[in-house]
Specification:
Layout: E1 18-22, H1 29-41, E2 46-48, H2 69-79, E3 82-86, H3 90-98, E4 103-106, H4 108-111, H5 114-123, E5 131-134, H6 141-153, E6 159-163, H7 181-189, E7 194-197, H8 199-203, H9 209-218, E8 223-227, H10 245-254, H11 262-301, H12 309-325, H13 330-353
Parallel strand pairs: 1-2, 1-8, 2-3, 3-4, 4-5, 5-6, 6-7, 7-8
Helix pairs in contact: 1-2, 5-6, 11-13, 12-13
The chain binds phosphoenolpyruvate and manganese (II) ion (MN).
Length: about 350
């Protein structure tokens, strides 16, 4: 897929970052036009708005549907901005194309479904417009690349991707975990593809948009897709993560875009891996403490003492040998294990003292 072309649009400067902004959903003609006019006035060239919204539960606002397409047409005519919306079915594709929508995106839930992807790809046969493929909801790079490949095989060449983060069962700072190493690996595999970051859906909160955007720029991303609503407080979807056009202007003006030389890119990629590994280490430690507390409960119920020297010796000896085999010093491993053991004992002591 070496001939995938970067997203370039007549009249849109090709300098980083390419910005796509607009509300999560088109809710009414007034809201759509009001937001669009404000964004156009600050120089935004590509307007996003969801017409069909994939929602977790039925009964939530599922988008206005095709009645909103003429609103996007008006946005185009009045402001000159390009328009973009999400398509998830063949009918969406046909209706969006008929209404003159300029850019289509595939939502995270659709990317994860090969049947839907194939139907959409078939419906796009012979069409030459930019299509953005959001990462699948699950952290599966092959599934993401497979979706891109299905579009590519029907002849599309203007394909870009959107990194919007990955779902996880546990609660986190982020609404969707970034797993930065996945888009980084995608860039290595498909070096010409435009990569956009969607800090709104990764962070799930306004406050995280700026730092995530900066991080994306430092990693050499080509653009950002950010949700912006004329009145976020009353947004019918994703209210927490939308910013007003004025707030967006501030966020964008604070972003520092460094020329990503190979060296700094490599360095920040490596640092990203370290950050990811540290996160994994912390989660693993937390899990270890949970198990340790379970053991504590067992000992308490069975009137056993917390500290059992023989077990501790065994752990220490085994792990120190493992560490030496993996190129770390036995002393280093001893220090770490002692610290972990200490915390573990403390957690069990607290539990013993609980009434
Ligand atoms: C969206 O862009 O509003 C959206 C629903 O995105 P995702 O598919 O990333 O959840
Ligand atoms: Mn949204």
């Amino acid at each position: 897929m070496n001939d995938i072309t970067p997203i370039t649009l007549p009249g849109v400067a090709s300098k980083r970052p390419l910005i796509i902004a607009g509300p999560c959903s088109a809710e009414s003609e007034v809201q759509t036009l009001d937001t669009a006019r404000k964004l156009a006035a600050m120089g935004i060239k590509i307007f996003r708005a969801g017409i069909w919204k994939p929602r977790t539960k039925p009964g939530s606002f599922e988008g206005v549907g095709a009645v909103g397409l003429p609103w996007l047409k008006r946005v185009k005519e009045e402001t000159g901005m390009y328009t973009a919306t999400e398509v998830a079915t063949v009918q969406h594709v046909e209706e969006a194309l008929a209404a003159g929508v300029d850019i289509l995106w595939i939502g995270a839930r659709t990317t994860a479904n090969p049947f839907s992807m194939q139907l959409i790809a078939d419906a796009l046969q012979g069409v030459d417009i930019p299509v953005l493929v959001k990462n699948p909801v699950n952290p599966d790079l092959e599934l993401w690349i497979g979706a891109i490949e299905r579009l590519y095989n029907t002849g599309l060449r203007q394909i870009g991707v959107v990194h919007r983060g990955f779902t996880s069962y546990d609660k986190h700072l982020y609404r969707n975990l970034p797993h930065w190493h996945i888009p980084i690996e995608l860039r290595r595999r498909l070096p010409h593809i435009s990569i956009m970051c969607d800090p709104s859906h990764i962070g799930g909160s306004r406050a995280l948009i700026a730092p995530l955007s900066q991080q994306a720029m430092d990693l050499g991303y080509d653009g950002l897709i950010i949700e912006s609503h004329c009145n976020p407080a009353v947004a019918m979807s994703d209210a927490q993560q939308q910013v007003t056009p004025d707030e967006l202007a501030n966020i964008l003006s604070d972003i520092v875009v460094r020329e990503v030389s190979q060296i700094t890119e490599t360095l920040s990629q490596l640092r990203q891996r370290i950050d990811n590994l540290d996160n994994d280490l912390i989660s693993l430690l937390a899990e270890r403490m949970r198990v340790s507390r379970e053991i504590g409960h067992y000992k308490k119920e069975n009137n056993m003492p917390i500290f059992q020297a023989h077990r501790y010796d065994e752990i220490l000896t085994k792990r120190m040998a493992q560490a030496t085999q993996l190129g770390m010093s036995a002393d280093f491993m001893k220090t770490i294990l002692e610290a972990i053991h200490e915390e573990s004992v403390q957690q069990q002591v607290r539990l013993f003292n609980d009434k």
